[in-house]
Amino acid sequence: MAAPAAGPVFWRRLLGLLPGRPGLAALLGRLSDRLGRSRERRRRRSPWLLLAPLLSPTVPQVTSPPCCLCPEGVHRFQWIRNLVPEFGVSSSHVRVLSSPAEFFELMKGQIKIAKRRVVMASLYLGTGPLEQELVDCLESSLEKSLQAKFPSDLKVSILLDFTRGSRGRKNSRTMLLPLLQRFPERVRVSLFHTPNLRGLLRLLIPERFNETIGLQHIKVYLFDNNVILSGANLSDSYFTNRQDRYVFLQDCAEIADFFTELVDAVGDVSLQLQGDDTVEVVDGMVHPYKGDRAAYCRAANKRVMDVIHSARARQQMLHAQTFHSDSLLSQEEAAAAGDRRPAPDTWIYPLIQMKPFEIQIDEIVTETLLTEAERGAKVFLTTGYFNLTQAYMDLVLGTRAEYQILLASPEVNGFFGAKGVAGAIPAAYVHIERQFYSEVCSLGQQDRVQLQEYWRRGWTFHAKGLWLYLAGSSLPCLTLIGSPNFGYRSVHRDLEAQIAIVTESRSLQQQLHQEQEQLYLRSGAVTSATFEQPGRQVKLWVKMVTPLIKNFF
């Protein structure tokens, strides 16, 4: 009976973050019980699992508009705000981008007009001419802010991963050193070093391989009060022919403040790049790999959770003031009055995952969304690296919603054609994909869970996230977009952030639907014949090694 008890323990760990929330305790208890039962059924591979859809009561078709909200904005996903701050915005401030070129040009344009702050968090900054163009834009804007008739106090903060950003003789650090040397009071470059890479392990693992232990993987690009959330890094392929996802939040001051504070928090527990290419620890902070690991992780947890708690408290106060005010205007009334802040029809929730610091908010929200997806609902889930955690696989296979999972074909995998051991990684993903497909077939779930492979000549695929369509709806009312890949690394090793966007705006729902369709239109259905194609034969040594290394990529 020990195994079923593990579920409730997992869910109730979050209650320590939420004192005085008995209602949430009941919610998490209900979810944990359902999740525990689902996992236990999967462990036993019970044949009753196959009958679950038949034994469950019929869910009536939804004929009302998708994701209907009551006048006070209490929608079916309101439980997320018990964990993180909720930001209500107008859908007119949200724009979905579709191409790498659009992403690159928007970033350059935003840097050029920034007056107060530029905050950029990425895995790394590349070393090619396009990346240099981005650095030149930063330099130009900083120079302009000093020489303007009315000088502005423009500050630039950049957060990268230490190991990835230090790879090679020419690297992210060398790209940013001139900027740091010229504007030492206005530029901050923080390099996150995982606390799990230390001691003898740090000395023995060579460059590139040391990146498997843990990374800073958050991708946030912020310019004054405008924010881009994406899974794309700051590298030339992400500006040209590597397909990702991107959402632009315009004039969203509270969201910009939150992500500025989040990047500052991670920056404070990171190593600080100096003008001579050395690194230093922030005064009073435990060293990430020389200091005591437990003490470092406790300090990092507190620093990040303080940001989440304070933002959540601010938003709760703002929500109470806003929705108990008689002055709340409709979209049409606000537009007629020239008000730039109409009543929100879209809600943004930042979801943070930093397992090294015992922060698991994104994992809990994602598992809950998959658990609660009802029969008739459709989940479109995409990842550039198909390597779902066991918990996510269990939920996909053990719940009632329909799933369309989009993944990279071997030819558009970012490791395709790589030298050395890395060149075998696409084959390892094929092996994982085939194992999952075989399990889908063995459970008779082919009609409910379908795999699609993305392919585009001359491109690679890096998109990740999901779109949720409620039962009876042809448009999504929720999407997850950001850095997580739904794999072991995202959940257990790396620092990740994404946002849940919940909207009742038909216009924004159509944008999200079009985004999903454009990605899936370039894909083909996976069948048993897929694995018989030339180039899909996985070598024996790859099959043997994959179970041992799948938690590292």
From TrEMBL:
PROSITE patterns membership: PLD
Reading the lineage from the top rank, the first entry is Eukaryota
Q: Name one GO biological process term.
A: cardiolipin biosynthetic process
Q: What is its EC number?
A: 2.7.8.5
Q: Which GO terms describe its cellular component?
A: endoplasmic reticulum membrane; mitochondrial inner membrane
Which positions fall inside the PLD phosphodiesterase domain?
212-238
Keywords recorded for this protein, A-Z: ATP-binding, Lipid biosynthesis, Lipid metabolism, Mitochondrion, Nucleotide-binding, Phospholipid biosynthesis, Phospholipid metabolism, Phosphoprotein, Repeat, Transferase, Transit peptide
One MF term in the entry's GO annotations: ATP binding
Q: Does the keyword Phosphoprotein apply?
A: yes
Provide the reaction this enzyme catalyses. Answer: a CDP-1,2-diacyl-sn-glycerol + sn-glycerol 3-phosphate = a 1,2-diacyl-sn-glycero-3-phospho-(1'-sn-glycero-3'-phosphate) + CMP + H(+)
Where does it localize?
A: Mitochondrion
According to UniProt, this protein's pathway is: Phospholipid metabolism; phosphatidylglycerol biosynthesis; phosphatidylglycerol from CDP-diacylglycerol: step 1/2; Lipid metabolism
Protein task: Functions in the biosynthesis of the anionic phospholipids phosphatidylglycerol and cardiolipin.
Question: Which family is this protein grouped under?
Answer: Belongs to the CDP-alcohol phosphatidyltransferase class-II family.
Protein name listed in UniProt: CDP-diacylglycerol--glycerol-3-phosphate 3-phosphatidyltransferase
Origin species: Mus spicilegus
Ranked from the top, the taxonomy reads: Eukaryota, Metazoa, Chordata, Craniata, Vertebrata
